[in-house]
Design goal:
By secondary structure, the protein is of the alpha/beta class. It is 38% helix and 9% strand.
Length: 406
C-alpha cells in the first residue's frame, strides 16, 4: 500500500517547522479520501509498486507527513497551476510528488522496452539460435562422402581331397598335386586334417614333436598362421591330438565352420589351399567340405572303393543344403591303377558310365616311388622329378588348371 501504511508514523524533522503551503493541506485531504484497499485497473492489480521500508524510502517532507500517491500527485499537478516554489517543507513535498511521477512512468517505459508483443516476429532482429542448431549440423553443411570402389580381392581355391574309404592315395594326391601347383608358380598351402599326420610326416616333420597343431586352431581358436611350417610347400601341421578334436568341438557353437573361419586369415595369401581329410565322414571331414569350394575324390580302381562314392555324394548334398551351397565335385581321380588286371579296367568303365565327365582323364598308376618318397620326407616330384610317378601328377595339375581357366 506504499505510503498508506505509514499514516500514523511521525517523522522527526531536523529543521524547525515552517508555514505550510496551501497545496499541502489540499493533498492531505485528497489522501484521506483514498480507500485502504487498492482498486485494480484495466491492466491488472495496481500493486505493481512494491512496498518500501524506511531504509529504501526516498527522503520525504520535513514536517508535512507522508508523500502523496503517484495518482494523487499526478491529478494535483494537472489541476493546480504552477506557483512560485515555496520554502521549507513545501518544497520538499513538491519534490516528493515529482519523484513519485518518475516512479509511475518507469514501469511504463520498462513495458515499452520489452519489444513487440508475443507472437509478432521482429523483422529487423536476427533469428535466435535454438539448442538443436548448436547440437545438430545443418543439412547444408553435411559433407557427402563419395562412394569408395572396393578392389575385388582374389581368394584362394580351396580343394578338399575326400573319400571315407582309407588307402586310396588321398595324402599322396594332396601333397604331390600341391607341389605340382607350386612348380607352375602358384602359392600353395596344404592342411593336414588327418589325425594320423601322414601328410606332415611326408614333409619330414614328426607329428609327435610339434608343439602346436590344427587341434589348437579348431578347438582353441589359435590363428592358423602360428602352426604353418615352410617346406616344399607351406603346411599346417597335424598331431595325434587331432583325434580328440571331434569330442572337444562337440559343444562348440558353429563347430562345422571352425576351419572356414581359421582360413580367413590366410586365404588371400595363397592361390590354392589343399586339404587332406581323414578316412571318415565325421566332423573333421565336414569342416573340410564346409571350407572348400571344390572336392577331388581319389578312388582306387576297385569295387569297394567306388561303392563309397554314393555315401560321399549324400554327405556332400547335405553340406550344400545346410552349410556350403557353393561346394561341388571338381573330379573323380582313379588311383593305384594296375592296367594289367581286368578288374581295374572294368572299374574305370563303371566310373565313366556313371559319372561321365567328372572322371579325370589323368590316371595315377601304381609306382614304387610313391612309397619311397615319404621315407625321404619329400614329394615324389622332388624325390624322382624325371620319373613316371612325377609325370602323373604334373599331368593332373595341368588338367585341373585347365578347368580353372575354363
Amino acid at each position: 500500500m506504499g505510503f498508506l501504511s505509514r499514516k500514523n508514523k511521525t517523522v522527526k524533522s531536523p529543521e524547525p517547522p515552517v508555514d505550510e503551503h496551501p497545496i499541502v493541506e489540499e493533498l492531505r485531504d485528497m489522501e484521506d479520501a483514498v480507500p485502504e484497499r487498492a482498486v485494480p485497473d484495466e491492466q491488472g492489480p495496481t500493486s505493481q509498486f512494491p512496498a518500501q521500508d524506511s531504509t529504501t524510502q526516498p527522503a520525504g517532507p520535513v514536517a508535512a507527513g507522508d508523500p502523496p500517491s503517484p495518482a494523487v500527485a499526478k491529478a494535483s499537478s494537472e489541476t493546480v497551476p504552477p506557483a512560485t516554489p515555496p520554502a521549507g517543507g513545501a518544497v520538499e513535498a513538491q519534490g516528493s510528488a515529482v519523484e513519485a511521477d518518475a516512479q509511475a512512468a518507469a514501469p511504463a517505459e520498462h513495458e515499452a522496452s520489452k519489444g513487440p508483443v508475443e507472437g509478432e516476429a521482429a523483422q529487423d532482429e536476427p533469428e535466435r539460435f535454438m539448442p538443436r542448431d548448436l547440437l545438430v549440423p545443418s543439412r547444408h553443411e553435411t559433407v557427402v562422402e563419395e562412394p569408395v570402389t572396393e578392389t575385388p580381392t582374389k581368394h584362394a581355391e580351396v580343394i578338399a581331397f575326400a573319400n571315407q574309404k582309407g588307402g586310396v592315395a588321398k595324402t599322396t594326391t594332396t601333397l604331390n598335386l600341391a607341389v605340382a601347383f607350386a612348380e607352375s608358380g602358384h602359392r600353395v598351402l596344404c592342411i593336414d586334417l588327418d589325425p594320423q599326420g601322414n601328410l606332415t610326416m611326408s614333409q619330414g616333420i614328426d607329428p609327435d614333436k610339434v608343439e602346436k597343431s590344427l587341434y589348437d586352431v579348431l578347438v582353441n581358436d589359435m590363428p592358423i598362421s602360428e602352426i604353418i611350417q615352410h617346406r616344399e610347400i607351406d603346411i599346417a601341421v597335424s598331431s595325434i591330438d587331432l583325434a580328440g578334436a571331434e569330442i572337444a568341438m562337440s559343444t562348440k557353437i558353429g563347430r562345422e565352420r571352425s576351419l572356414e573361419k581359421a582360413l580367413k586369415e590366410v586365404v588371400g595369401d595363397y592361390d590354392f589351399v589343399c586339404i587332406d581329410t581323414p578316412p571318415s565322414l565325421g566332423l573333421l571331414t565336414i569342416n573340410a567340405l564346409t571350407a572348400a569350394n571344390k572336392v577331388i575324390v581319389p578312388v582306387q580302381c576297385e569295387y569297394l572303393s567306388m561303392r563309397g562314392l554314393v555315401q560321399l555324394q549324400n554327405t556332400l548334398k547335405m553340406i550344400q543344403e545346410n552349410l556350403n551351397p557353393d561346394v561341388r565335385i571338381e573330379g573323380i581321380l582313379p588311383t593305384m591303377l594296375d592296367s594289367r588286371t581286368v578288374h581295374a579296367k572294368e572299374a574305370i568303365e563303371i566310373l565313366e558310365e556313371n559319372f561321365g565327365d567328372l572322371v579325370f582323364r589323368s590316371r595315377i598308376r601304381k609306382a614304387i616311388k610313391f612309397a619311397e618318397a615319404p621315407v625321404k620326407g619329400s614329394s615324389v616330384l622332388k624325390y624322382d622329378p624325371q620319373g613316371n610317378a612325377a609325370g602323373y601328377y604334373r599331368d593332373l595339375a595341368k588338367e585341373v588348371l585347365s578347368h580353372e581357366s575354363a
